[in-house]
Amino acid sequence: MSSIAELTERVREFARERDWEQFHTPKNLAMALAGEVGELLAELQWLTPEESAAVMADPELGPRVRAEIGDVAIYLARLADVLGIDLVRAALDKLDDSARRYTVEAARGSASKIGGGHPPGA
Amino acid sequence: MSSIAELTERVREFARERDWEQFHTPKNLAMALAGEVGELLAELQWLTPEESAAVMADPELGPRVRAEIGDVAIYLARLADVLGIDLVRAALDKLDDSARRYTVEAARGSASKIGGGHPPGA
Amino acid sequence: MSSIAELTERVREFARERDWEQFHTPKNLAMALAGEVGELLAELQWLTPEESAAVMADPELGPRVRAEIGDVAIYLARLADVLGIDLVRAALDKLDDSARRYTVEAARGSASKIGGGHPPGA
Amino acid sequence: MSSIAELTERVREFARERDWEQFHTPKNLAMALAGEVGELLAELQWLTPEESAAVMADPELGPRVRAEIGDVAIYLARLADVLGIDLVRAALDKLDDSARRYTVEAARGSASKIGGGHPPGA
């Protein structure tokens, strides 16, 4: 698995070479990130959850989903970079918070019904 | 900088312990990712681009932005994991594509006016 | 059914009274719109499509979904207003475009398989 | 100004003719709505707030922004319709709620600094 540090450096260089740093404010990059997530949603929106689980085996949709995931990662890495945030460290810290708020005991099955309270995510 | 592989493994374990794997289809995780990006946008929406560039120095907003960035990274890593995608590899491949489509020569200044064509991103 | 013109006027007044017009640029309002859509997604993200179809019958989730839909409509009406766009007219025009691009004959069943091409939306 | 009731009826007919009702669950439509909002953000993401305020005067960008706004309205009207929600009524109710939470007195200038508390929206 390649490193997020390498990606961050590559995206930074990509922006610098093209003189695009002037556009890369956190506000603009957050919008770009949301735009790419929107494209990702568009690939999955009409699929059933089961179909979405098999999407990478589809010769047409699979590569498109992979490319959208790549775009999202690019903008997220860039946004973290301009904010001076260690992306993985921020995620691990948040996961520690979530582990305290959603203990294993309380969380099991907590989303098994509609309106069942907290989302089953980190 | 911590590794994305470590984050991926930690999130996987987090979901398994809570019996939440059943909810983590690509479709659902893409929605959760979009929801977290929405929370990130909400933190930045009323700031000027200049204010957004200084947001991490704000004692109240800075930690909130960092936490939202963390949440986005968590769901993105989880989504890539359930899809069997190497997140950083997908991003680097996409960056190579973008480098071919937006050459340094053509790209310089391309977004300097409204409607100036392709977005100055990867 | 109440009118969009009434809503538009009410939101305009709401912003004016609070001296918030200065923040309501199209860029900021588009971010706010996306933030509210993110909250809507968060309410539906762990539901199956079938559960989502029954969501309004849930005494806890139903009112929350209705409130999020309301928030989205507020920002969309406000955004159209500051842009000088007749919201419903823009939608009807787009629907006419879509009717030409996706004829009834070609469209029937077009989304019945993964990767089946154009999304079954307007 | 055209009516939201007319739009709702037109979109309903559009979906029925194409046999797309099967795909129009609230979950799927919320994703489609978010996808269209993502396209709208993409049109505005590199503009300054001031440029965004002038976007409709741009002969290239203006029509694109109008079309995206139309797409967002289409999916929002459709989503409200399948949920059985009166869209404008839900928005007006939410605005009443917001008026109670953010009184005119307290709200004036509340977003005038970074981290200045509640967002200056409805």
TrEMBL record, chains A, B, C, D:
| Listed GO MF terms | nucleoside triphosphate diphosphatase activity
Give UniProt keywords alphabetically: Hydrolase
Q: InterPro entries annotated for this entry? A: dCTP_Pyrophosphatase, DCTPP
| Chain segments annotated as coiled-coil in the UniProt record | none
Q: Name one GO biological process term.
A: nucleoside triphosphate catabolic process
Entry protein name: NTP pyrophosphatase (Non-canonical NTP hydrolase)
